[in-house]
Amino acid sequence: MDGIDYCDSNATKALFLFARDSGNGVYVPYVTQKVAYLLIDTPVYRGAVMPTTLATRREAFLGAIGMTVYPGLVLDRALQGHRGTAVTFSYHAGSSTAVFSSGTALKGAVSTMINLHNGWTVTTFALVAGGAVFSNASALALLITGITLSLLLAILFFVLTTSRARALRLVGERTGELRHQALHDSLTGLPNRALIMDRIEQLLVRNRRHGTLGAALFIDLDDFKDVNDTLGHAAGDRLLVSVAARLEGALRDADTIGRMGGDEFVVLIDGASLQVAPELVAERLLDVMRRPFDLDGATLPLIVNVSVGIAIGDRTSPGDLLRDADVALYEAKASGKNRYEVFHPEMQTEVSRRTELEFALRSALEGDQFRLVYQPIYNLDDLTVVGVEALLRWEHPTQGLLQPDEFIPILEQTGQIREVGHWVLTTACTQMAQWHNQGNAMDISVNVSGRQLDSDDIINHVRDALNVSGLAATSLIIEVTETALMRNTTATAVRLAAIKELGAKIAVDDFGTGYSSLAYLRQFPVDCLKIDRMFTNAITTSPESKALIGTLVQLGKDLGLRTLAEGVETTDEMDLLRDQHVDEAQGFLLARPLDAETFEAQLLAPIRPIVLGGPTPDVTPRK
């Protein structure tokens, strides 16, 4: 009967466990809503075979089929054609009693009771006539009981056999569901890690048989953690579902895509059906991901970038192919993200080195291994020093002085850049405050990464650095790359405005290499545009670069901004920059980055114009 909970009482629970342990069906009365039914509880075991021992029955037990029958209807059917006959079907065990009756006994009827055991009895009432079966009360009782029990057994047999078939069907369906859940990601419905590893094994076997080369593409969302941190994990889950659907829609039916966990996906391309190079597949995936995502809870469409690592060819095991794709992915992220890289053996060495550096960086700040060098910034009109840019260096305990591009990407990836950046701000401001006290009034520029701008902590770090050092806020310039400005324009503009309110200045570093426009620049409280060295170095040979620098200078003048050219290495470059009315410059021609002591000895007390060709020791790698 539908809607009955067969485990709603201790009694029925006990019967359920009895059926499980004994392997036999249980038949007991069941009373609900003041109506008595016959409860049938049939155990079901794995493989549809009852185990022979108690322990194996418990281990193989899948569940039980519970059904209810109204015996009154069964008895009515059994007594059809037997007028003047009545039957009572009774149960008595302990305090439990139930009686099911049918038929009407005539006056003078004789009763006969038969014990069916297990608490059940059947009593028949009928007239005894001379001759034939009905002249003998025992024979009559036996006949009626036989009719009744035969019909009951027939119905019970039908119930049990159909229940067993239904149970097997349900077990099969449930087994299929469990298997699907075990091999597919519950959020996106894509194959999970277990199934992907099996598919890679099949891919490798097929390609060996056909002599073809398959490929695995390891895909990871760039900065996905920022979505969870700003919009919440529910929004992050919705984004993952949308990303999975978009990636899947960009692939052919022959390709396999799965989710490895978190924000990582894997695409498998079978070499037997490979019609385009895996690199082209990666480009297509990067292209489809460039379209913004409209996500509930987000005020603006989200731009989601991905990095892709590609491993092509045969491997000893699925894990090896996936490992190499992961190594290539790591390389793609280290090279700037939102791109793909194809694995080659040398990458393994590079990854090992990065891993070593990452481990060593954990103690670099506490070990006082970082130091700052200062590259002078000159006014192009009279070549006087107007400021310095503070640049971070790492004195590795065994490898010596390391270039920034070797460790800063690792700091950004691990998030340590926030803590290290705070140290840089405080140290640079403290040094400049000392020079101010010596009578050398200059500005100091400090680079701030996109990861630092992702948090309001950057505002507190700037405030703390100014308070601790005592430096006038107007002497501090915060440099932000053009790419960092575009990460989250709204939030970044708010944080830069807060820094500007403290009195500091804002400069856009590497200007011209990104994709900002005049409309975007107006959103930010910018004071200076730093022209990237690639344009400075090409100004003497490329009319296009010369024209672009002229345009950038005019843009700066229109917006009331200073312009500064980076990477000046020849006098021809400096002369052309001066002709284009660039305000300031820095570069190896003028001075290399210097430690504080060398800077003081060569260029301070008092500050004097530079003499071109004068000694400027090359004590650090170029920026």
Content-based structural category: alpha/beta
User: What's the tally of helices?
Assistant: 21
CATH topology (level 3) name of the largest domain: TIM Barrel
Query: What's the CATH H-level superfamily name of the largest domain?
Result: EAL domain
Give the percentage of residues in beta strands: 15-25%
CATH classification class of the largest domain: Alpha Beta
Folded structure, characterized:
By secondary structure, the chain is an alpha/beta fold. It has 3 domains: 10-181, 2-Layer Sandwich (Beta-Lactamase); 193-344, Alpha-Beta Plaits (2-Layer Sandwich); 356-603, Alpha-Beta Barrel (TIM Barrel). It has 21 helices and 21 strands. The protein has an 8-stranded mixed β-barrel, surrounded by 4 helices. A 5-stranded mixed beta sheet has the order 9-10-8-11-12, with helices on both faces. Strands 5-4-7-6 form a 4-stranded antiparallel beta sheet. β1 (26-32) and β2 form a beta hairpin. α3 crosses α4, α9 (318-334) packs across α10 and α12 runs parallel beside α14 (457-469). 34% of the residues are buried. The model is unreliable at 613-623 (pLDDT under 50).
